[in-house]
Amino acid sequence: VQLQASGGGLVQPGGSLRLSCANTGSTFGVNAMGWFRQFPGKQRELVATVANDGTTKYADSVKGRFTVSRDNAKNTVSLQMNSLQSEDAAVYYCYAHQGPLSYYKGTYYPEGKYLEVWGQGTLVTVSS
Predict the structure, then answer these.
(1) 3 state DSSP class of 86
(2) CA–CA dist 108, 118 (Å, integer)
(3) Using CA of residue 99, residue 26, residue 122, residue 21, what is the dihedral sign?
(4) Residue 67, Cβ neighbours under 10 Å: how many?
(5) C-alpha count within 13 angstroms, C-beta hemisphere, residue 27
(6) Which pLDDT tens digit goes with each residue over 81-108?
(7) Among positive and negative, which fits the CA dihedral 54, 55, 58, 60?
(8) What confidence tens digit (pLDDT) does each residue in 51-74 have?
């Protein structure tokens, strides 16, 4: 699995940005892809992920504003970010979950042995 992210940049508050990520390597065992972000001095946190069956998972802070989507035929995952706020400014990382998932109450969790694969970060700056 090799992840190549693109699409970061500078946007004004209230604006939109779209991030894209392509898996240019093996897709074997990849059951979910998505995005995490990291603020300075903080741990990486979930933004949104989508499993192979289309089930999505979002951070509460982005629900209704961000949309994660996958194109399984092209092995890509995208993040459409609308109504961006200064609090969304961070380094965004593309993510792939290589391993099994378990489903419970409409969402999914890693199960057993798995790998977390990360792409290079892409900076999103929200400023007027």
Answers:
(1) helix
(2) 19
(3) negative
(4) 17
(5) 15
(6) 999 999 999 999 999 999 899 888 888 9
(7) positive
(8) 999 999 999 999 999 999 999 889
